[in-house]
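hey so i finally got around to running the thing on that chain from the lab meeting. sorry it took forever, my laptop kept dying and i had to restart like 3 times. anyway pasting the input first so we r on the same page abt which one it is
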Amino acid sequence: MVYGRKQGIIGGIMNPKELKEYIDEKAPNAYETFFASAKEYQNEKNQKRQPAKRWNERKVDRSVEKMWDGVISTIHNSLSLNIKGEDRKSYEAWVEFIEKSEFLVSFEEQIAEIEFE
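ok and heres what got predicted. didnt touch it at all, straight out
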């Protein structure tokens, strides 16, 4: 079974949603680390707002999720530039590239070192 294909569909490009699912499955610490750091950043930013304009917890969480979606989108674009030719259209080629390049290892390291300003 090809990872991420719920009904056993094989082939086609790995879209950003599938990449997000793949990363969540294969590197769950990356998301957890990012979420904790980004939430701390958003909470600090929120405290600087005037009390009447402060966000509630739900809005802070949504903002962090949007930040994560932005990371996934950037990664998807970067990976698509590195996967050449017809392979770009193959979900399996995406998985193979991610695994062979040890992308997830370096990604988790980069997320652990991320700083927000």
